[in-house]
Design a protein that fits this description.
The complex is a heterodimer of chains A (288) and B (432). Chain A has 288 residues and is mainly α. Chain A contains 11 helices and 2 strands. The chains are: A mainly alpha (288), B alpha/beta (432).
């Protein structure tokens, strides 16, 4: 029984890791730009396909492929900010709809370029650690470690740098921030780059573990929305804690019952939090 | 004295001479017989993209080889006339609505005389059209058959019934295996197969731990699923008829979580990649039901497939060894059956071909003589059932271990299969 418990905890930690990266990216974009980016799941997908192309296709080192994916998807975020969200800054609903359109464009481009079949990405390692009778592969450990590093770096960035303070200021009150001389456009670009890059690196890291398909973004965006609602829209800390909570609940229920019941429980969790705390666990009072 | 050679090769003369030469040459070349052969169109309505594409697209690729070989030989002889075969493909994306659209197009616009399908979830979208038009349709899934599906035949694959052969063989060769777990996606492919494996395990005296695990088809992380499956330390891990996109990560998770037991699965498509992602040692002894066609066992005279080893070599040459799947040969073998029936009927019309196919109640199934069967399970004798191979991974390669008889298993254990099919609402009179 203890081996089952440890194995399930390990599985949950992995799931919490990549979902936290995706959710934090989504919250960052919403917090600064006030827009829900429905194409965020597709940014995750593009990161995965960067690894498909560079690591599986061109035999580049995995680290290089992940870094390239991070930069590429970040730049894609810049394009989205400039082409979609900035012109529609005063129209959040328009930005949401535009992001849905961009989602479809990214999916279609992926289908055209790679087809609909799941891609085979060779494992980066078959080695594993045995922890109390449970197994943690190096691939999954890498996802957990990189997530901790990136989220820690983001926390330091937001707390200790001028750019980070600017991001937090804009997300709290855009007009006041502008009056203080903070460039909204520059801050929005920064938020979009970081937010997109986080989704892209999540996709890149998990590419050897899931078989990338053009439609893989769909399931993560639904989960990401549940997480940011539970955590509190606009709260980075809330997104991380909600990701951990959701991943553990979902993984344990899947292991003890099945995945369909786990999905239902996840939704019930979201409803329960909204009833008790309508702004989410860390919403409104605590913002990025 | 200057000698002038009169060379009056002016433009008119040159052109006239060239035209004459062309006519002479053209008359000397034998006329290509295709220009005079009729064309019979065969519909291929299956998933060519999406999660189930591994059971559609490779089959179309195999049919192209079959078609090229038939046409190079002058076409098939039906009623004293040569018929070139042309395949018209439509991607149903494993969706009933798209399959309905495809069937309408194939029948009404393309004028096909026979439609080959994977079957399963798309079949209900096609059923009414097939009945109305009297179109002969083949399925790889006999679980689609009902008394109303009079023009639907399952002449090759008898999914999921053939799965009993793997379990029966395993129980005999490895009697020390006493417990099993089963997982599958919850759909028309997974459920009847689960019922079959439950019956097969019960017949073999193997205990199934817990209820079969029907996982969400949207699952991408199979770690929690595998953790649950392995929690009881089962002797046998049964992957049922999981899609190719699920079998690979499930095997990989079993490997990563240190499973040392026996794996059995209906299919093991693209197993080379699974071996790469795990190891030869881990995959040694995995049992499934679909051979590679370079297997020398297929040269047995009872096997009704022309030049199986050459077919495999041609497939690999055109598409790559990694693209060979469970269905790469199946639709081509159905074409063998169809062509034979059309030749005997002297017609390509669906009604005539169907009558010729079922004449005498027996037929030449790819793996030997077989009979048209299925009334007890499907309400109609439209499944061609005989022997089926048990395939095992040996040193990283699929090898046929034995051919086993499905009717022989049925005679001993039919009650068990009916019991489990009924419990999972998979009998023909329970399916909507």
């Amino acid at each position: 029984m203890s081996a089952l418990l440890i194995q399930t905890t390990i599985n949950a930690a992995y799931a919490a890791s990549y979902m936290a990266l995706i959710a934090v990216g989504l919250v960052l974009i919403f917090g600064v730009m006030g827009v829900i980016n429905f194409a965020h799941g597709e940014l995750y997908m593009v990161g995965a396909y960067a690894v498909v192309t560079l690591y599986a296709g061109a035999n580049m080192p995995f680290a290089v492929a992940v870094a390239a994916g991070l930069v590429f998807v970040g730049c894609l975020g810049l394009i989205m900010e400039w082409g979609l969200f900035r012109p529609l800054r005063e129209n959040p609903l328009g930005g949401l709809i535009a992001s849905i359109g961009f989602l479809l464009i990214l999916q279609s481009l992926a289908v055209l370029a790679f087809g609909l079949r799941a891609q085979n990405v060779p494992p980066i390692s078959k080695e594993r650690l045995v922890v109390g009778g449970a197994v943690l592969t190096y691939e999954r450990l890498l996802v957990i470690v990189v997530t901790l590093v990136l989220l820690s770096a983001l926390w330091l960035f937001l707390r200790r740098t001028r750019f980070g303070w600017a991001l937090r200021a804009v997300s709290q009150d855009r007009e006041a921030a502008a009056l203080q001389g903070i460039s909204i456009n520059q801050t929005a670009r920064l938020a979009m780059f970081i937010g997109a890059a986080l989704a892209g690196v999540a996709g890149a890291l998990t590419a050897p573990l899931v078989a990338p398909t053009p439609l893989m973004g769909h399931s993560v965006i639904v989960t990401a929305f549940i997480i940011i609602i539970v955590g509190g829209i606009g709260s980075l800390e809330g997104a991380v804690i909600a990701a951990i909570l959701y991943a553990f609940v979902h993984t344990f229920v899947t292991t003890l019952y099945d995945g369909v019941i786990a999905n239902i429980v996840g939704l019930l969790l979201m409803l329960a939090v909204l009833i008790v705390m309508p702004n989410g666990m860390f919403g409104a009072k605590e913002r990025a | 004295m200057e000698i002038k050679v009169a060379s009056r090769l002016d433009r008119r003369t040159f052109l006239t001479g060239a035209a004459g030469a062309a006519l002479i040459v053209n008359a000397a070349i034998p006329r290509v017989s295709f220009a005079q052969a009729k064309v019979v169109k065969i519909g291929f309505l299956a998933p060519l993209t999406g999660a189930v594409a591994a059971w559609g697209k490779p089959g179309l690729d195999g049919c192209q080889i079959w078609g090229d070989w038939a046409n190079e030989a002058g076409g098939i002889d039906v009623g004293g006339e040569k018929h070139k075969v042309e395949f018209v493909a439509y991607d149903d994306e494993y969706d009933a609505g798209k399959a309905r659209t495809g069937a309408s197009q194939l029948v009404q616009e393309d004028g096909v005389k026979f439609i080959m399908m994977l079957g399963g979830d798309p079949w209900p979208g096609v059923e009414a059209i097939a009945q109305r038009e009297g179109m002969l349709v083949s399925t790889l899934l006999p679980s689609d058959l009902t008394p109303e599906t009079t023009t639907l035949v399952a002449p090759c694959e008898v999914h999921p019934i053939y799965n009993v052969t793997g379990v029966e063989w395993l129980a005999e060769k490895r009697p020390e295996l006493k417990t099993a777990v089963i997982c599958a996606q919850d759909d028309a492919l997974g459920k009847p197969s689960v019922a079959t494996y439950l019956a097969a395990f019960e017949a073999a005296g193997i205990e199934v731990q817990g209820d079969p695990l029907f996982f969400d088809p949207a699952t991408t992380d199979f770690a929690p699923v595998m953790t649950q499956l392995l929690s009881g330390n089962p002797d046998i891990l049964c992957l049922d008829t999981c899609y190719a996109d699920y079998v690979a990560p499930l095997c990989e998770q079993a490997f990563q979580q240190g499973y040392k037991g026996q794996i059995i699965s209906c299919t093991l498509d693209f197993y080379g990649r699974i071996v790469e992602r795990t190891s030869k040692e881990f995959m040694e002894g995995v049992v499934f039901q679909f051979p590679d066609f370079d297997d020398p066992a297929l040269n047995d005279p009872k096997v009704n497939f022309k030049r199986p080893n050459e077919f495999y070599a041609e497939y690999v040459k055109r598409y790559g060894a990694t693209e060979w799947s469970a269905v790469s040969w199946e639709y081509a073998s159905i074409m063998d059956l169809w062509a034979d029936a059309a030749q005997r009927a002297g017609s390509v019309e669906p009604e005539a071909v169907l009558a010729a196919m079922k004449e005498g109640g027996t037929g030449k199934h790819i793996f030997g003589d077989a009979k048209w069967w299925g009334k007890e399970l499907f309400g109609i004798d439209n499944a061609l059932v005989g022997d089926w191979p048990v395939v095992v991974i040996r040193d990283g390669k699929a090898k046929i271990e034995e051919f086993r008889s499905i009717p022989a298993w049925w005679e001993k254990h039919s009650a068990l299969l009916i019991k489990h099919m009924t419990a999972l609402d998979q009998m023909w009179d329970q399916r909507t």
